[in-house]
Amino acid sequence: MDLLLCSRLGRPRCLCRRLDRPVNESTAPAVRLAGLTFAYPDGTGALRGVDLDIARGERVAILGPNGAGKSTLMLHLNGVLSATSGEVYIGGTRVDRTTVRAVRRRVGVVFQDPDDQLFMPTVEQDVAFGPVNFGMRGEDLAENVRFALAAVGMTDRADRSPARLSLGERRRAALATVLACRPEVLVLDEPAANLDPVARRELAEILLTLPTTLVLVTHDLPYAQRICERAVILDSGRIVADGPIDEILADAQLLAAHRLS
């Protein structure tokens, strides 16, 4: 097993393990990207040999300027996109056509626009939609819906139309639609965008209580620092920095070099 050294201006920043084979499911990291490369059909390269491990229970911010490849990386985690080359593992399971349905239950993605995930007449029906599609029925379904609504503080809004909710409430309802499937990995795309200070705080408090592995894709550096202990900077499809978030965000030269300040 060799090591890939990531550096900036010749300074070591991180050591990322590159694997040629998956490890045992019980000891595997929550997420492992091994040489992940992706190009769109027009030939545009979005990811270039990304190697990344995320431990179980870790909270990691994926940072980077527009066009860095953050959203493309996010969509590989639950098999929406398939790698041009390289591999994605979730808990030791390689993501491919034979495993993608199971992986999508293990990896929940909350998109920036909550309306992408809220389309039923009531919040409760939206929260039940995912578990039902995964075959959950009866008391198991009811228990998971109750759990998800309680986790985001939306129990008293279960019968309300999503159209009558504030943006902050819709974000929490969208989060509940994913939590109801009990994912092992939770991926959030700009969860605090356009929220007022109260809604930002409420959402942060919820995220900090969740026991799942959390991947936060964002431009919002203060919000990322509040929630995550580790930061990864992606630029031009490559990891250029990886380390404790306090250290990463204290490096003004690094942030400026990658259009984050």
TrEMBL record:
PROSITE patterns: ABC_TRANSPORTER_1, ABC_TRANSPORTER_2
UniProt keyword annotation of Nuclease present: no
Name of this chain's protein: ABC transporter ATP-binding protein
Keyword Amino-acid biosynthesis in record: no
Name of one Pfam family that matches: ABC_tran
Listed PANTHER family: ENERGY-COUPLING FACTOR TRANSPORTER ATP-BINDING PROTEIN ECFA1, HEAVY METAL TRANSPORTER
CDD domains in the cross-refs: ABC_cobalt_CbiO_domain1
Keywords: ATP-binding, Cell membrane, Membrane, Nucleotide-binding, Translocase, Transport
Signal sequence extent: none
Top-rank taxon: Bacteria
Coiled coil: none
Domain ABC transporter: 31-261
Gene source species: Nocardia gamkensis
Compartment annotation: Cell membrane
GO molecular function: ATP binding; ATP hydrolysis activity; ATPase-coupled transmembrane transporter activity
InterPro entries: AAA+_ATPase (IPR003593), ABC_transporter-like_ATP-bd (IPR003439), ABC_transporter-like_CS (IPR017871), ABC_transpr_CbiO/EcfA_su (IPR015856), ECF_ABC_transporter_ATP-bd (IPR050095), P-loop_NTPase (IPR027417)
